[in-house]
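INFO batch 0412 | record 1 of 1 | parsing
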Amino acid sequence: MTVVISMEDIETSAQRAGIDISSVDLDSITLPRGEDFGIESDDDEDLYQEDPLEFEGGFRNIIVVDNLPVV
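INFO prediction complete | emitting tokens
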């Protein structure tokens, strides 16, 4: 599920926190490796999808003999 936040909401939150958003250099912000702070990435679904197992159907070289009398 994607949460969309408008720039207006971000600016309002920054003003309430006393942050001048025009002085923030967003390119200088780096997250610790492997930390996502609970924010799902667009490609997270791809990471957790497993490839379906492929089973061969049929009995190529197998002979099954059933209901033989016991001697």
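INFO post-check: The mean pLDDT is 77.
INFO record closed
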